[in-house]
Amino acid sequence: MRGLRGRTYIVTGAASGIGRATAARLLEEGATVMGADLAPPPDPAPEGTDAGGRWAFRHADVTDEASVAELVEDAVTFGGGVDGLVNAAGVAGGGPVHLLPAEEWARVIAVNLTGTYLVAKHVLAQMLRQPARDDGQRGSVVTVASIEGLEGTAGGSAYSASKGGVVLLTKNMAIDYAGRGIRVNAICPGFIATPMTDSVFGPGMEGPLADILREHKLGRRMGRPEEIAAVAAFLLSDDASFVTGHALPVDGGYTAGRDHGVTEMLGLSGPE
Questions:
Q1: Which residue in 121, 202, 227, 265 is a FRET match for 177, CA 20 to 30 A apart?
Q2: Separation of first and last alpha carbons in the chain
Protein backbone atom coordinates (compact mmCIF):
# COMPACT_ATOMS: atom_id res chain seq x y z
CA MET A 1 0.00 0.00 0.00
CA ARG A 2 1.17 3.53 -0.69
CA GLY A 3 2.83 5.57 2.01
CA LEU A 4 3.60 2.93 4.65
CA ARG A 5 7.20 2.16 3.78
CA GLY A 6 9.67 4.10 5.89
CA ARG A 7 7.06 5.46 8.29
CA THR A 8 6.79 4.67 12.01
CA TYR A 9 3.69 3.22 13.66
CA ILE A 10 2.72 2.30 17.20
CA VAL A 11 0.58 -0.82 17.64
CA THR A 12 -0.84 -1.59 21.07
CA GLY A 13 -2.01 -5.07 21.98
CA ALA A 14 0.84 -6.28 19.78
CA ALA A 15 1.61 -9.51 21.65
CA SER A 16 -1.30 -11.46 20.19
CA GLY A 17 -4.44 -11.41 18.07
CA ILE A 18 -5.33 -8.37 15.99
CA GLY A 19 -2.45 -6.29 17.31
CA ARG A 20 0.15 -8.90 16.48
CA ALA A 21 -1.28 -9.47 13.00
CA THR A 22 -1.32 -5.71 12.39
CA ALA A 23 2.30 -5.32 13.45
CA ALA A 24 3.23 -8.15 11.07
CA ARG A 25 1.32 -6.59 8.18
CA LEU A 26 2.93 -3.18 8.67
CA LEU A 27 6.38 -4.74 8.82
CA GLU A 28 5.63 -6.59 5.59
CA GLU A 29 4.69 -3.27 4.02
CA GLY A 30 8.09 -1.83 4.94
CA ALA A 31 7.07 0.25 7.95
CA THR A 32 8.89 0.64 11.26
CA VAL A 33 6.76 -0.64 14.16
CA MET A 34 6.86 -0.06 17.90
CA GLY A 35 4.70 -2.76 19.47
CA ALA A 36 3.34 -2.51 22.99
CA ASP A 37 1.50 -4.83 25.34
CA LEU A 38 1.27 -5.96 28.96
CA ALA A 39 1.94 -9.51 27.79
CA PRO A 40 5.42 -10.80 26.85
CA PRO A 41 6.63 -9.66 23.42
CA PRO A 42 6.67 -11.68 20.21
CA ASP A 43 10.27 -12.82 19.92
CA PRO A 44 12.09 -11.66 17.91
CA ALA A 45 9.25 -10.29 15.76
CA PRO A 46 5.77 -11.30 14.59
CA GLU A 47 5.89 -14.56 12.66
CA GLY A 48 6.56 -14.45 8.96
CA THR A 49 8.25 -11.04 8.99
CA ASP A 50 11.77 -9.90 8.28
CA ALA A 51 11.90 -6.87 10.55
CA GLY A 52 15.43 -5.82 9.56
CA GLY A 53 15.81 -3.49 12.55
CA ARG A 54 12.35 -2.00 12.03
CA TRP A 55 10.68 -3.78 14.96
CA ALA A 56 10.80 -2.88 18.64
CA PHE A 57 8.58 -3.86 21.56
CA ARG A 58 7.85 -2.15 24.84
CA HIS A 59 5.98 -3.34 27.90
CA ALA A 60 3.24 -0.76 28.35
CA ASP A 61 -0.02 -0.36 30.26
CA VAL A 62 -2.55 1.67 28.27
CA THR A 63 -4.41 2.56 31.48
CA ASP A 64 -1.31 4.25 32.95
CA GLU A 65 -0.65 7.67 31.43
CA ALA A 66 3.02 7.71 32.42
CA SER A 67 3.53 4.34 30.72
CA VAL A 68 1.78 5.60 27.59
CA ALA A 69 3.89 8.77 27.50
CA GLU A 70 7.06 6.69 27.73
CA LEU A 71 5.82 4.44 24.92
CA VAL A 72 5.39 7.39 22.58
CA GLU A 73 8.77 8.84 23.56
CA ASP A 74 10.41 5.48 22.85
CA ALA A 75 8.70 5.28 19.45
CA VAL A 76 10.04 8.72 18.54
CA THR A 77 13.54 7.71 19.59
CA PHE A 78 13.31 4.42 17.72
CA GLY A 79 11.65 5.60 14.52
CA GLY A 80 12.32 9.32 14.40
CA GLY A 81 8.69 10.30 14.86
CA VAL A 82 5.21 8.81 14.89
CA ASP A 83 3.21 8.56 11.67
CA GLY A 84 0.32 6.53 12.97
CA LEU A 85 -1.28 4.39 15.62
CA VAL A 86 -3.34 1.24 15.77
CA ASN A 87 -4.90 0.96 19.22
CA ALA A 88 -5.68 -2.76 19.43
CA ALA A 89 -5.24 -3.27 23.18
CA GLY A 90 -8.47 -4.52 24.69
CA VAL A 91 -10.14 -6.89 27.13
CA ALA A 92 -13.41 -8.80 27.19
CA GLY A 93 -15.93 -8.52 29.99
CA GLY A 94 -19.56 -7.87 30.76
CA GLY A 95 -22.71 -9.61 31.88
CA PRO A 96 -26.18 -8.54 33.00
CA VAL A 97 -25.82 -5.18 34.72
CA HIS A 98 -27.48 -6.27 37.97
CA LEU A 99 -24.84 -9.00 38.33
CA LEU A 100 -21.86 -6.99 37.11
CA PRO A 101 -19.42 -5.90 39.84
CA ALA A 102 -18.45 -2.27 39.67
CA GLU A 103 -14.79 -3.31 39.65
CA GLU A 104 -15.33 -5.35 36.47
CA TRP A 105 -17.15 -2.45 34.79
CA ALA A 106 -14.25 -0.14 35.70
CA ARG A 107 -11.64 -2.62 34.42
CA VAL A 108 -13.22 -2.97 30.99
CA ILE A 109 -13.85 0.74 30.56
CA ALA A 110 -10.31 1.55 31.74
CA VAL A 111 -8.60 -0.63 29.14
CA ASN A 112 -10.94 -0.36 26.17
CA LEU A 113 -12.08 3.26 26.35
CA THR A 114 -9.76 5.18 28.66
CA GLY A 115 -6.76 3.32 27.25
CA THR A 116 -7.78 4.32 23.73
CA TYR A 117 -8.08 7.93 24.86
CA LEU A 118 -4.70 7.97 26.61
CA VAL A 119 -2.73 6.47 23.73
CA ALA A 120 -4.48 8.71 21.21
CA LYS A 121 -3.84 11.75 23.42
CA HIS A 122 -0.08 11.29 23.44
CA VAL A 123 0.20 10.17 19.81
CA LEU A 124 -1.86 13.12 18.60
CA ALA A 125 0.22 15.54 20.68
CA GLN A 126 3.36 14.12 19.08
CA MET A 127 1.89 14.39 15.59
CA LEU A 128 0.99 18.03 16.20
CA ARG A 129 4.60 18.74 17.20
CA GLN A 130 5.87 17.23 13.96
CA PRO A 131 5.91 19.24 10.73
CA ALA A 132 3.32 18.29 8.15
CA ARG A 133 4.48 16.36 5.11
CA ASP A 134 4.53 17.96 1.67
CA ASP A 135 0.92 16.83 1.16
CA GLY A 136 -0.16 18.60 4.35
CA GLN A 137 -0.76 15.37 6.25
CA ARG A 138 0.64 14.50 9.66
CA GLY A 139 -0.60 10.96 10.18
CA SER A 140 -3.42 8.54 10.80
CA VAL A 141 -4.95 7.01 13.92
CA VAL A 142 -6.89 3.73 13.83
CA THR A 143 -8.90 2.66 16.84
CA VAL A 144 -10.25 -0.86 17.23
CA ALA A 145 -13.88 -0.83 18.35
CA SER A 146 -16.27 -3.72 17.64
CA ILE A 147 -19.57 -4.56 16.03
CA GLU A 148 -20.71 -4.52 19.67
CA GLY A 149 -19.99 -0.81 19.60
CA LEU A 150 -22.55 -0.47 16.79
CA GLU A 151 -25.34 -2.72 18.05
CA GLY A 152 -26.25 -4.46 21.26
CA THR A 153 -25.37 -8.03 22.21
CA ALA A 154 -26.96 -9.95 25.07
CA GLY A 155 -24.70 -9.75 28.09
CA GLY A 156 -22.45 -7.19 26.42
CA SER A 157 -22.93 -4.35 28.94
CA ALA A 158 -19.42 -3.10 29.85
CA TYR A 159 -17.76 -4.32 26.65
CA SER A 160 -20.44 -2.88 24.38
CA ALA A 161 -20.44 0.39 26.30
CA SER A 162 -16.68 0.68 26.05
CA LYS A 163 -16.63 -0.01 22.32
CA GLY A 164 -19.56 2.32 21.65
CA GLY A 165 -17.53 4.98 23.44
CA VAL A 166 -14.56 4.24 21.19
CA VAL A 167 -16.73 4.77 18.10
CA LEU A 168 -17.92 8.22 19.23
CA LEU A 169 -14.50 9.21 20.52
CA THR A 170 -13.09 8.31 17.10
CA LYS A 171 -15.60 10.47 15.27
CA ASN A 172 -14.93 13.43 17.55
CA MET A 173 -11.16 13.11 17.09
CA ALA A 174 -11.66 12.93 13.33
CA ILE A 175 -13.48 16.27 13.42
CA ASP A 176 -11.03 17.92 15.81
CA TYR A 177 -7.82 17.05 13.96
CA ALA A 178 -8.79 16.96 10.28
CA GLY A 179 -7.67 20.55 9.82
CA ARG A 180 -4.20 19.59 11.04
CA GLY A 181 -3.86 16.77 8.54
CA ILE A 182 -4.63 13.87 10.88
CA ARG A 183 -7.15 11.21 9.94
CA VAL A 184 -8.92 9.10 12.60
CA ASN A 185 -10.99 6.00 11.87
CA ALA A 186 -12.33 3.01 13.77
CA ILE A 187 -12.44 -0.62 12.72
CA CYS A 188 -15.40 -2.56 14.08
CA PRO A 189 -14.44 -6.24 13.84
CA GLY A 190 -16.93 -9.03 13.95
CA PHE A 191 -16.06 -12.07 16.01
CA ILE A 192 -12.40 -12.77 15.28
CA ALA A 193 -10.44 -15.93 16.10
CA THR A 194 -8.13 -14.63 18.82
CA PRO A 195 -7.12 -15.77 22.32
CA MET A 196 -9.54 -13.21 23.78
CA THR A 197 -12.45 -14.62 21.80
CA ASP A 198 -11.47 -18.14 22.79
CA SER A 199 -11.71 -17.10 26.44
CA VAL A 200 -15.33 -16.01 25.92
CA PHE A 201 -16.63 -19.09 24.11
CA GLY A 202 -15.73 -21.79 26.57
CA PRO A 203 -17.75 -24.84 27.63
CA GLY A 204 -21.50 -24.18 27.59
CA MET A 205 -21.26 -21.52 24.87
CA GLU A 206 -21.50 -23.92 21.92
CA GLY A 207 -25.05 -22.86 21.03
CA PRO A 208 -24.44 -19.09 20.98
CA LEU A 209 -21.19 -19.63 19.08
CA ALA A 210 -22.93 -21.66 16.37
CA ASP A 211 -25.56 -18.93 15.99
CA ILE A 212 -22.90 -16.22 15.80
CA LEU A 213 -21.00 -18.13 13.12
CA ARG A 214 -24.17 -18.48 11.03
CA GLU A 215 -24.63 -14.70 11.08
CA HIS A 216 -21.17 -14.11 9.63
CA LYS A 217 -22.54 -14.48 6.12
CA LEU A 218 -19.16 -14.81 4.42
CA GLY A 219 -18.12 -18.38 5.11
CA ARG A 220 -20.18 -18.82 8.29
CA ARG A 221 -16.95 -18.50 10.25
CA MET A 222 -15.04 -16.20 12.55
CA GLY A 223 -12.80 -13.63 10.97
CA ARG A 224 -9.03 -13.93 10.98
CA PRO A 225 -6.76 -11.35 12.65
CA GLU A 226 -4.99 -10.88 9.31
CA GLU A 227 -8.25 -9.68 7.76
CA ILE A 228 -8.51 -6.89 10.33
CA ALA A 229 -4.81 -6.09 9.92
CA ALA A 230 -5.31 -5.58 6.18
CA VAL A 231 -7.98 -2.95 6.82
CA ALA A 232 -5.84 -1.25 9.47
CA ALA A 233 -2.98 -1.02 6.98
CA PHE A 234 -5.32 0.50 4.40
CA LEU A 235 -6.63 3.12 6.83
CA LEU A 236 -3.09 4.10 7.78
CA SER A 237 -1.95 4.30 4.18
CA ASP A 238 -2.11 7.11 1.65
CA ASP A 239 -4.67 5.02 -0.23
CA ALA A 240 -7.16 6.16 2.45
CA SER A 241 -6.21 9.84 2.15
CA PHE A 242 -9.85 11.00 1.94
CA VAL A 243 -11.22 8.66 4.64
CA THR A 244 -11.79 9.93 8.17
CA GLY A 245 -14.41 9.70 10.89
CA HIS A 246 -15.67 6.26 9.90
CA ALA A 247 -16.52 3.21 12.01
CA LEU A 248 -15.93 0.47 9.47
CA PRO A 249 -17.44 -2.96 10.18
CA VAL A 250 -15.16 -5.82 9.11
CA ASP A 251 -17.55 -8.55 10.06
CA GLY A 252 -18.37 -10.93 7.21
CA GLY A 253 -21.79 -9.31 6.85
CA TYR A 254 -22.83 -9.71 10.50
CA THR A 255 -24.22 -6.19 10.83
CA ALA A 256 -25.91 -6.28 7.42
CA GLY A 257 -28.90 -7.85 9.18
CA ARG A 258 -30.14 -11.21 10.37
CA ASP A 259 -30.56 -14.23 8.11
CA HIS A 260 -32.83 -16.44 10.29
CA GLY A 261 -32.24 -19.38 7.94
CA VAL A 262 -33.98 -17.79 4.97
CA THR A 263 -31.02 -18.09 2.58
CA GLU A 264 -30.99 -21.83 3.26
CA MET A 265 -34.69 -22.01 2.36
CA LEU A 266 -33.92 -20.16 -0.87
CA GLY A 267 -31.02 -22.42 -1.73
CA LEU A 268 -28.51 -19.60 -1.35
CA SER A 269 -26.65 -20.68 1.77
CA GLY A 270 -23.69 -22.29 0.03
CA PRO A 271 -21.80 -22.52 -3.26
CA GLU A 272 -23.32 -24.53 -6.08
A1: 227
A2: 34
CA distance readout (Å), 80 to 37, 55, 131:
21, 13, 12
Give the sheet arrangement for strand 32-37, strand by strand: 55-59, 32-37, 8-12, 84-87, 139-144, 182-189, 247-250
Say how far apart CA 89 and CA 271 lie, in whole Å.
37
Across the range 82-102, mean pLDDT stands at: 96
> Residue 119 in contact with residue 85, Cβ under 8 Å?
yes
CA distances from 215 to 93, 101, 197 (A): 22, 31, 16
- Please tell me whether residue 239 adopts helix, strand or coil conformation: helix
Catalytic residue, chosen from 9, 117, 159, 177, is: 159
Tell me which DSSP letter residue 69 carries. Answer: H
- Answer yes or no: 159 catalytic: yes
Three-state secondary-structure class, residue 215 = helix
Please tell me whether residue 68 adopts helix, strand or coil conformation.
Answer: helix
Peptide bond into 44 cis (omega under 30): yes
Q: What is the pLDDT of residues 254-272, one digit of tens each?
A: 999 988 889 888 998 876 6
Mean pLDDT, range 88-102, rounded to an integer: 95
